[in-house]
Amino acid sequence: MDRIRAFFDLYRVPIDNPEFAQAQLRELAKRMPMIYFITCVSSFGLALTQYQFAPPILTIGMPMILTAVCAVRLRYWVKEKHRKYTYREAIVRLRGSVRLAALLGFGFVSWSLSLYPFGDAVAHSHIAFFVVVTIVGVTCCLLYLRAAAMSVATAVLVPFCIHYIATNQLVHISMAFNAMLVVGAVAYAMLTYNNDFARLISGNAKTRKLSNDNLKLANLDSLTGLPNRRKFFEALESGYSTEGPTDVTVGLLDIDGFKPINDVYGHIAGDQLLVEVGNRLSKFSGDTVTVARLGGDEFGFLVQPALDDARAKELGEAICKCISEPIHLAQATVRVSASIGLLSAPVDGSVQANQLFEKADHALYFAKQNSRGQIVIYSAEHEKAIRQRSFVETELKNADLEKELTLAFQPIFDQRNGKVAAVEALARWSKDGVQFSPDVFIRQAERCGMMGKLTEVLLSKALRAARAWPDEVSLSFNLSAADIGSEHTMAKIVEMVTNSRFPAHRITFEITETSIVRDFDQAEAMLLKLKELGAKIALDDFGTGFSSLSYLQRLPFDRVKLDQSFVATIEHDPKTQSIVRSVIRLVRELGISVVAEGIENKAQRNLLLEMDCRLMQGFLLSRPISSGDLLAIFRNNGASTAECEEPPVPSVASGK
């Protein structure tokens, strides 16, 4: 039964392989002119040799009719040869071609056999020759369409063999069997070739699919389905030309509040949030707008032609509004916001595509630092900042860090006894008489990957200086987010502390919430290494973030430093007083000490003393001083709590 089914399958068009069906149709369209040419020329040749024997209706009329049908079909094939068919259309077209091929084959063989009664033995041989040669030629042309080749061969060969065998003439019978043998051999070769062709098409389809999959992986973000960073830059570069006016708006977007959600609810929830944000952003994608996920919770969009600042801001506001709508996750319903940096390329074509991205990135950075959840359009002020950043980076890379980096020291006083409890080491950098702000050069060192080198030099100097301090005084040393994120740097810090002659339990490493937010698991692992070393951990700038309390619960902090923004308003704002009082009580109940930063007048100090905050740091008590001045304070038994006589000045960022 299976063999019978397999036999009849030879006459059917396969419907389980769309690629193969469309490939068959393409090949058939290429070969139809040759098929009709062979058939019509052979037919006129046969009609010419039979003209003297047979009536005109058979030698002229029938060939003309059959040729006309072939001409109509040929015209149709030529007209439709460039048309692209769907899979279903291709199957219908192939099935129609198989049926028509069988009918035409039967028509031609019927006509040729109708000439048999009128001719002599030579004419009879010509008829056999016409049938066999034509069927072989047509079958060879139909190698790519097995069903059509088999249908034509059967429709022609069966009537021919029956007719010639029925003549009972040995020569004719021999011709019939020879025809079957030759056509059978051709059919066998055709079936083998057809199978090879099917495998080739299938292999090409798999190769194309793999290529498309690789292209998709290379250009699309696997989580959101949006174009990825590579595709974004490709679109930026292709849409930007330095040969003429630029015409593109670059927007970079960062999700505010993503990290805490990812930490609290887990990575699956974080992925769900990113997918939803991607879906919302994709609504803005179109002919003029390209949206991409650049990595993590950062997205980008390109607009071409470029928008003016007003329209660019409108687009940014629409995106922010869309993202700020509640997001329903499996675990909870959450809200996030978006900070956006925008840049419409200058019209002078003087910058490269990567520079456009860098400028938009700077605008985004400014938004996250100063206008979180808002849109910032790149301006001349940002241009100035970038030039300064580039200058600082160049100077850093050419600096003699061991020689040029120095430390200033700002004491932390215990108000119960008026003595120095700890000293914070603050980084200073001077090159060729130019003093660089710590806030500027540390941030740039983080951006250009030099922070680890700075940390090693500064910690080495701090440990050497601290060996001369009294035993009850500890060293506070700041670690940046780049330090916490680098296993190499942290391993070096552990090695330096271990090899120094300064006890680890007298070192407090200060970190900011930013260091934790970037990668909580990494931060936790690194902080535990410091704790195993015996060092203490302080959370700097406490209160400036939105998730500090959860970090106090989950990480091994020994101290928090109350941000100076609270201290600055504590005199006149009852709400601030209530917040600070509650924070101090909460932190103390957790067994964590509190340091108030930025004390600049007596009123602030007195209010904090009433709230039972004993450790304080600020210009009222001491400005950052040199190592020699610090040792002078220690020689006076640390009783240097007299306020500075000079008026307070804006405090320097307490980075390294």
UniProtKB/TrEMBL annotation:
<dbReference type="InterPro" id="IPR001633">
    <property type="entry name" value="EAL_dom"/>
</dbReference>
<feature type="transmembrane region" description="Helical">
    <location>
        <begin position="98"/>
        <end position="119"/>
    </location>
</feature>
<dbReference type="InterPro" id="IPR050706">
    <property type="entry name" value="Cyclic-di-GMP_PDE-like"/>
</dbReference>
<dbReference type="InterPro" id="IPR035919">
    <property type="entry name" value="EAL_sf"/>
</dbReference>
<feature type="domain" description="GGDEF">
    <location>
        <begin position="246"/>
        <end position="380"/>
    </location>
</feature>
<dbReference type="InterPro" id="IPR000160">
    <property type="entry name" value="GGDEF_dom"/>
</dbReference>
<dbReference type="InterPro" id="IPR029787">
    <property type="entry name" value="Nucleotide_cyclase"/>
</dbReference>
<feature type="transmembrane region" description="Helical">
    <location>
        <begin position="34"/>
        <end position="51"/>
    </location>
</feature>
<keyword id="KW-1133">Transmembrane helix</keyword>
<protein>
    <submittedName>
        <fullName>GGDEF-domain containing protein</fullName>
    </submittedName>
</protein>
<dbReference type="InterPro" id="IPR043128">
    <property type="entry name" value="Rev_trsase/Diguanyl_cyclase"/>
</dbReference>
<feature type="domain" description="EAL">
    <location>
        <begin position="389"/>
        <end position="638"/>
    </location>
</feature>
<dbReference type="Pfam" id="PF00990">
    <property type="entry name" value="GGDEF"/>
</dbReference>
<dbReference type="Pfam" id="PF00563">
    <property type="entry name" value="EAL"/>
</dbReference>
<feature type="transmembrane region" description="Helical">
    <location>
        <begin position="125"/>
        <end position="145"/>
    </location>
</feature>
<keyword id="KW-0472">Membrane</keyword>
<feature type="transmembrane region" description="Helical">
    <location>
        <begin position="57"/>
        <end position="78"/>
    </location>
</feature>
<feature type="transmembrane region" description="Helical">
    <location>
        <begin position="172"/>
        <end position="191"/>
    </location>
</feature>
<keyword id="KW-0812">Transmembrane</keyword>
